[in-house]
Design brief:
alpha/beta; Rossmann fold; 2 domains; four-stranded parallel β-sheet; 14 helices; 16% strand
């Protein structure tokens, strides 16, 4: 059994001997060589599949630290605003810690897979009549009253946990990649990767941050955030790295989502393909060592997968009919 993420990187995390570790076995996610996409794009491409975390997204890396510290500091409840993945992660780790989780979600804007997770895990789920940004403002106000610990990425412990993905990449590749491509929603993960690479002194890769051109209405619901909470820090990280934010149409994001599934066998939620879409937009040196962070599992958003895929064809239980239909 692998050690909890906090134990593996204890010397680089804000924890002490008395910190109670709340873990579900997060981190240590697969790094997969993308042979077909490497050839297609003219680079050496690796995929960091964060959908293999316990609740199916990268959020678990930060949540293990945020909930552990909330428990250490005497919190009895946590609160977050979420487009889905934070909700599922907060609900799971809070349940593990014996804490109440209050989740504020924009009404009608969250994928069913994520909604189901949070409900099944016992969170108090409240549908806010407004945007994610309005829900986050309300969550912060509630946390300021001292009754709930905020576990969005504005909580610095979240970023501390999420930076460990950069540690893993350097360990697995033997160095930092030349380019890191990832989705850009609120910006916390971009900021955390920059923090992790810079702490190691391994060099900061050029960061390609793939964001939806139409943030408030994008089909990529996990990055449907109109006002990124970490925009200023992301801008500085992009400048330091020599990278850039790449604005993407929904069509480009969904094309990348199909490529990951059909060329590499990796099923992710649409927003998770934004890093690959940013890479496909061009501007990367041929032969560069590139890591695309695939942030969430495809089962997070089954409705989109069903809507965009060819439906099953009904056939009789007959070999000839099956062979004909399979052509």
């Amino acid at each position: 059994m692998r050690a909890p993420l906090i134990e593996r990187y204890r010397d680089r995390l804000p924890v002490g001997p008395g910190t109670p570790i709340v873990s579900l076995g997060e981190g240590d996610t697969p790094l997969l060589r993308a042979e077909r996409l490497s050839e297609r794009l003219g680079v050496e491409l690796w995929l960091k599949f964060e959908g293999a975390n316990p609740t199916g997204s990268f959020k678990d890396r930060g949540m293990t630290v945020a909930i552990s510290k909330a428990l250490e500091e005497g919190a009895r409840a946590v609160v977050c605003a979420s487009t889905g993945n934070t909700a599922a992660s907060a609900a799971a780790y809070a349940a593990r810690a014996g804490l109440q989780a209050v989740v504020l979600q924009p009404a009608g804007a969250v994928a069913l897979g994520k909604l189901s997770q949070a409900l099944a895990l016992g969170a108090r789920l409240l549908a806010v009549r407004g945007s994610f940004d309005q829900a986050l403002a309300a969550a912060r106000e509630l946390a300021d009253r001292g009754t709930h610990a905020l576990v969005n990425s504005l909580n610095p412990y979240r970023l501390q946990g999420q930076k460990t993905a950069a540690f893993e990449l350097v360990e697995e590749l033997g160095r930092a990649p030349d380019v890191l491509a990832l989705p850009y929603g609120g910006g916390g993960n971009t900021r955390a990767y920059a923090l992790g690479f810079e702490e190691q002194g391994a060099g900061l890769p050029a960061i390609l941050a793939g964001e939806a051109a139409e943030r408030p209405s994008t089909a990529a619901s996990a990055i449907r955030i109109a006002e990124p909470a970490h925009s200023a820090e992301v801008e500085r990280a992009l400048e330091r790295s020599g990278g850039r934010a790449v604005q993407l149409t929904d069509e480009a994001i969904l094309d990348a989502w199909r490529l990951l599934a059909r060329e590499e066998g990796l099923f992710c939620e649409p927003a998770s393909a934004a890093g690959l879409a940013a890479l496909a937009a061009g501007g990367v040196d041929p032969g560069a060592l590139v890591v695309c962070v695939v942030t969430g599992h495809g089962l997070k958003d089954p409705e989109t997968a069903s809507r965009l895929s060819t439906p099953p064809v009904e056939v009789d239980p007959d070999a000839d009919a099956i062979a004909a239909a399979a052509r």
